[in-house]
Each structure stands twice: as structure tokens, then as C-alpha cells.
């Protein structure tokens, strides 16, 4: 068995997903009387996957490695979406090496640096593995904060969402945005089950924030990096910005997140005023901001 495969992690995910489903969602009768378990029973999950209850129990207990055929049955039985499917195949070591080990890059590619420089008035940040913030432009600093003033360890989107009061207060729909960030890191985690830096980050946030600890344990996943983000900025008030991301083609796991406002809207006016106040400079370059 590959050292990157952790049957216990797969079992924990299956258990969490089973407990999050109702009989009605999978086409089963709820039955008379009060159910003593949350979600589906193990027997019901096994029935839907067409496997024995004994085998399914061993899967949840991490005592057996799931075959590709069984995984396909579980995907259908537990109504897993595309992100969750990719996650369970990664956990089971059945992803054919698609993203299991990514090259590590903690600085923006030169082309992305040039793009950041040219996005004047448009907030943009570069997110690397574990949602580490490795690049940004002046507009992003104006919207969020001066990332360069933070120690390198604290330049992490997930960490800021939970532990930085100003960053947290900026998000009008904080719970939604925070849950999405947790789900994104949880989805990425399947690609490297022995990422010590991720374990350190999760451990710190679990100790310091009850919401994070609960949401991480729920094993919800999110592969969405687009949509409308709502902010309440202390200088210009409320903004509704379209968020879009593009993945780097080099396999580094980096992605460029860009925030724009629809022309002619109050948000566009507020963003123009906000970024005009920012002292002009260059996009973040690692050599200009050494670790503090």
C-alpha cells in the first residue's frame, strides 16, 4: 500500500458524508418513529453501494483499502459531487497520480508578476498551496491590508479569515466565505496526506477557533473560486465584487484571484476611490519582502 494512502482518512470522510445525508435525499423511506442516528445508517449506505455491511464497516474503520469498483459505488451511493469524487479517489490512492504530489512554488511566476503590475485599480492576489498568499498588487493591499507588513507565516488566506480581526470584519458574509476557504484547503489536503505545514496550520486554527474546528471536522469540500464577494470596508463602505480565479498551468497549484466591479455601480465608484488612495508601487516581489 502506498505510504500516501490513509484508509483512516477515507473512512472518516465516508462517515461524515453518510451522517450528512437523509434517507429522503437518497430515495429511501425514513421509516416510522424517531431515528436514533444522524443521517444514514451504515446498513443503508452499504445497501445503496451494493456491498456488505461488514465490508462497509471496515471501510469506515480504515481497516481495508477500497477498490476502484467499490469507490465508484460509494460515489453514487453517497451522492458525491465532482470535488468530493476527486477527494475520495485521492484519499484512496486511486487518482492515477493526477495531483498527488505537486511541485512546490512559493513565489509568483514572472508572467504572473507582470500581470499583477498591470492590473492597476483591480485587486489581485496569488494563492499557492494551503492558500498561502505569495503575491499581490497595490489594489489588493488597499482592499485587504498590507500583506508585506505581516510575517511570512501569517500571509495565509485561511489563517487571516479566522485570526485577523480586520480581515475577518471586512467580509460581510464571513461565514460563507470562511466555510468556502476551509473546504478549498480540505479538498487540496487529499493530494498530500503528510503535509506537515498543513497539519501545523490546521492544528493552530483548531486550537484557536471553535468554528474552524467544527467545520474542518465536517469534511465539507469546495472547489469554487468564483462568485460575488461582499465586503464592508472601513474607508469606502460596502462593495460587491466579482471574484474569478485562474489556475497556473505549471502544476504548482498556484492560482490568480482577481476582484472586479461592474462598471457604473456604487461598488465600482468605491473601488476606484479606494485604490486611488493607495500609494503607487509595484506588485509584491519576494526579494522585496524578506521574512520578519
Keywords:
alpha+beta; MLTR_LBD; disordered C terminus; 434 Repressor (Amino-terminal Domain); Beta-Lactamase; 2 domains; single chain; five-stranded antiparallel beta sheet; Lambda_DNA-bd_dom_sf; 292 residues; Cro/C1-type_HTH; 5 strands; Helix-turn-helix domain-containing protein
Descriptive notes:
The protein has 292 residues and is α+β, with helices and mostly antiparallel strands. The protein folds into 2 domains: 7-91, 434 Repressor (Amino-terminal Domain); 110-288, 2-Layer Sandwich (Beta-Lactamase), CATH 3.30.450.180. The chain has helices at residues 7-19, 42-49, 53-60, 68-77, 82-91, 110-118, 138-143, 157-163, 165-170, 174-189, 196-208, 210-218, 266-277, and strands at 124-127, 133-136, 227-233, 237-247, 255-260. The longest helix has 16 residues, at 174-189.
Amino acid at each position: 500500500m502506498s505510504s500516501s494512502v490513509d484508509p483512516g482518512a477515507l473512512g472518516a470522510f465516508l462517515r461524515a458524508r453518510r451522517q450528512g445525508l437523509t434517507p429522503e435525499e437518497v430515495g429511501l423511506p425514513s421509516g416510522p418513529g424517531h431515528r436514533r442516528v444522524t443521517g444514514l445508517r451504515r446498513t443503508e449506505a452499504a445497501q445503496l453501494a451494493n456491498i456488505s455491511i461488514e465490508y462497509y464497516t471496515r471501510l469506515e474503520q480504515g481497516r481495508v483499502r477500497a477498490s476502484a469498483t467499490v469507490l465508484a459505488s460509494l460515489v453514487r451511493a453517497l451522492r458525491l459531487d465532482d470535488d468530493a469524487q476527486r477527494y475520495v479517489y485521492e484519499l484512496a490512492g486511486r487518482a492515477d497520480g493526477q495531483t498527488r504530489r505537486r511541485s512546490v512554488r512559493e513565489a509568483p511566476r514572472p508572467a504572473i508578476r507582470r500581470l499583477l503590475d498591470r492590473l492597476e485599480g483591480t485587486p489581485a492576489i496569488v494563492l499557492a498551496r494551503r492558500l498561502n498568499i505569495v503575491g499581490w498588487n497595490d489594489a489588493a493591499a488597499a482592499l485587504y491590508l498590507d500583506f508585506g507588513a505581516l510575517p511570512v507565516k501569517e500571509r495565509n488566506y485561511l489563517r487571516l479569515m479566522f485570526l485577523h480581526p480586520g480581515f475577518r470584519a471586512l467580509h460581510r458574509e464571513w461565514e460563507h466565505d470562511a466555510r468556502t476557504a476551509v473546504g478549498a484547503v480540505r479538498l487540496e489536503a487529499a493530494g498530500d496526506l503528510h503535509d506537515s505545514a498543513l497539519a501545523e496550520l490546521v492544528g493552530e486554527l483548531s486550537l484557536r477557533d471553535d468554528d474552524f474546528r467544527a467545520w474542518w471536522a465536517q469534511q465539507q469540500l469546495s472547489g469554487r473560486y468564483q462568485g460575488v464577494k461582499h465586503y464592508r470596508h472601513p474607508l469606502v463602505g460596502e462593495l460587491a465584487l466579482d471574484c474569478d480565479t485562474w489556475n497556473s498551468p505549471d502544476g504548482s497549484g498556484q492560482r490568480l484571484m482577481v476582484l472586479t466591479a461592474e462598471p457604473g455601480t456604487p461598488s465600482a465608484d468605491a473601488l476606484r476611490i479606494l485604490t486611488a488612495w493607495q500609494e503607487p508601487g509595484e506588485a509584491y516581489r519576494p526579494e522585496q519582502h524578506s521574512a520578519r
